[in-house]
Design brief:
Elements: E1 9-12, E2 15-18, H1 26-40, H2 47-58, H3 64-75, E3 78-80, H4 88-104, H5 112-122, H6 125-128, E4 143-146, H7 151-167, E5 173-178, H8 182-194, E6 199-205, E7 208-213, H9 223-233, E8 242-251, E9 254-261, H10 279-291, E10 295-297, E11 304-305, E12 311-312, E13 316-320, E14 325-331, H11 336-348, E15 354-359, H12 366-374, H13 376-381, E16 382-385, H14 391-408
Parallel strand pairs: 14-15, 15-16
Antiparallel strand pairs: 1-2, 3-4, 5-7, 5-8, 6-7, 8-9, 10-13, 11-12, 13-14
Length: 413
């Protein structure tokens, strides 16, 4: 996404308005195509060659900050080869030492034979194995892959990237999403979970939800990492036919309101999200299916009514052959506020078919640790994990929760 110095915004009656580009602008499309040609060039260029070529293209456009932004987005789509395990500083030191001795002895520095002789005397010919003596420097890293796209797509991603860069400095977000298709709303919430974000969810109107999401400006620790997760979530909103975002963003030393809707015409770059499963979740599913016989992970995760207007959207749902269903909600290291809210909700509505997992990093917060210790609900239906829960801890908690539910219904445990 774009960095702070590449953000183009203006103030309109105190409100912050991103300066979006027109994805159909011919001049910009030409600049985008020229930049793309540089990144597609063969043989694969080095990082230094790409930067030099891009700088020449950027300088020809009347608004260099826009062209630099486009180049930044393309650079983010590159993977470069590293120099490997060779100790290049030590190899250079050996070459310079021998070269100095040869020059003092009067050897002709320009001769190719001189270069070969120096490398041989320094004993680095085999160590270099055909690579450059300066191959470890960033500008000499060679492009190995580039995730290509079209010029119009690049301009559309520039507009989304402007908003993402602003959200890195946002306070609490208020988001309204609506769709005639419940699956579309569920998909947005899956994106929210995928990026390890939590929201307080309330119904807004038929077919619409209001999401209250903490912003990085309200997170005391790891705000930068959290802000990145929030910015990565934002494009999921742009895939809906109707949405609204309200927040405040730090801009030039002051908090400024930012309001956006689908009228901005932003295009989501996310495609076929349902086909991608993170490695940690895939491994959890495989291990659960292989080792657990009386429970299974269900394919659909429903909305749970938490009492009043609040709704809960769990991370995973489980079912048992006897018809018992239980859901799991995870709280990661920056979810202190949502966790405390959830514990209060569960204290008042203990019959919710839910278990919760809490990251050990989150429990370092004194207020969180005290709330967990005081919660009888958590002792029965909660567990701790590191980064992502294990099958063993999840199964143990499911077993405790099912036993507690039977006791609550008057059945023998």
């Amino acid at each position: 996404m774009l960095t702070k110095e590449l953000i183009r915004c203006r103030l309109d009656k105190g409100r912050l308005r991103p300066c979006f580009v027109d994805p159909a602008d011919d001049a910009l499309l030409q600049v985008a195509e020229r930049l793309l040609t540089a990144y597609r060039s063969q043989p694969a260029p080095t990082r230094g060659e790409l930067e030099e070529n891009a700088a020449g293209i950027v300088a020809t456009y009347p608004e260099p900050i826009v062209a630099r932004g486009l180049d930044k987005l393309l650079a983010d789509r590159c993977e470069f080869a590293t120099a490997g395990e060779r100790d290049y500083p030590a190899l250079r030191a050996a070459v310079f030492r021998v070269a100095g001795q040869a020059l003092r002895a009067g050897a002709p520095a320009a001769a190719e034979s001189y270069r070969t002789a120096v490398l041989e005397r320094a004993g680095v010919v085999d160590a270099l194995a055909g690579t450059d003596l300066y191959a470890d420097l960033p500008e000499n890293e060679r492009l190995v892959s580039f995730r290509d796209l079209g010029p119009r797509q690049l301009l559309e991603r520039y507009n989304v990237g402007l908003v993402q860069a602003l959200l890195l400095r946002a306070s609490r977000l208020e988001v309204t999403v609506s769709s005639a298709e419940p699956a579309a709303l569920r998909r947005v919430l899956k994106y929210l979970r995928f990026f390890r974000l939590l929201a307080r969810i309330t119904p807004d109107s038929p077919g619409a939800l209001r999401l209250h999401i903490d912003g990085p400006g309200s997170i005391l620790s790891e705000a930068k990492r959290y802000g990145l997760q929030l910015a990565c979530f934002f494009p999921a909103l742009c895939g809906l036919a109707a949405w609204r975002l309200d927040t405040e963003v730090e801009w030039k030393g002051r908090r400024r309101p930012l309001h956006l809707t689908e009228a901005a015409g932003l295009v989501s770059p996310y495609r076929n999200f349902s086909a991608y499963v993170p490695e940690e979740i895939r491994l959890f599913h495989e291990h659960f299916r292989r080792t657990v016989t009386d429970w299974c992970v269900t394919g659909q995760t429903p909305f749970l009514h938490g009492g009043g207007q609040e709704m809960v959207f769990p991370d995973l749902s489980f079912s048992r052959a006897d018809g018992t269903v239980c859901h799991l909600e995870l709280f990661h290291r920056w979810h202190a506020g949502p966790l405390l809210d959830r514990l209060r909700l569960l204290r008042d509505g203990p019959d919710l078919p839910l278990i919760i997992g809490v990251d050990h990093a989150l429990a370092r917060d004194p207020a969180v640790a005290a709330a967990l210790a005081a919660s009888d609900w958590f002792q029965q239906r909660g567990f701790m994990f590191r980064d992502y829960p294990t099958v063993e801890k999840t199964l143990a908690c499911l077993t405790r929760a099912a036993a507690a539910a039977r006791v609550g219904q008057g059945e023998p445990s």
